[in-house]
Amino acid sequence: MVLIKRKSRKKNNKAGEETVVKEKPRKKKRRKKKILDLDSLAKKLVQDISEYTGMNTLQLPDKLKQKITREILDIVITSTSYKPSTDTILKRISRNRELINMIIAARMLEELNEFTDEQLEFIVYYGKRMIIPEISRLYRILIKKNRKDLISYLQYVWEKYGRPSPVKCPKCGFNAIMPDYTCYICGYTVTESYIREQISFEEKLREFIKEASVAELLEVLEYGFVFVSREGIKTPKSKIDPSKIYYQIYLKPKDKALIKEEISNRKIPV
């Protein structure tokens, strides 16, 4: 309590004072906001969500259904202080069906070791970009199952969501030969001669020789190789776009002879 002195209310008594007792205002206690426990909610709703999303039909293990349900709730529940009804949650799942199907497919591929035909079909047809990190493993599984129909569709998935290369693998048929000459899908390694043939190297080299400056031609001769992509040839010192696939091709004597001939035609001694 605080004691405050103030002047008396009497008109002619300036010296008179009275003591007034003033209490401090009490602070109102704030109610703590309840935070929604998504783990507990996932346990309560796992059966409803599994039935609604088809996880029961896919015969997934209970532990995996629980894990996927928890991940789904992270997507469809935007506030941790408000618990929507089950019907609201299912409606939100419906609106995000494409993403949720991708999650189910990706988690199946990551967690399971054995697959039914129905599970593999769901993974291939609905996994889209989320199965790309495991696409090599998925390809091997489909080979063992002899599911050529799914492999054909998986090629489409790779072309649309993966990192297709300019060179097709002669073993698996995917456009997936990487800069180290190995296939990202099946692991097969090709030769430099195969790369040269597939990307029409000689034609691209002739175009490069016509358009390149003398300095660039001399650079290529000095280093003895070039980088080749779908678009054309880059010199060894050129900046390489990391989003594109380039192959390092070493020059053969006949390639160097063409370059020297071009420089000579420009009347500059080599």
Automatic annotation (TrEMBL):
Residues 1-13 have a biased composition (Basic residues). It comes from the Archaea. Residues 1-28 are annotated as: Disordered. Residues 14-23 have a biased composition (Basic and acidic residues). This is Uncharacterized protein. The lineage of its organism: Archaea, Thermoproteota, Thermoprotei, Desulfurococcales, Desulfurococcaceae.
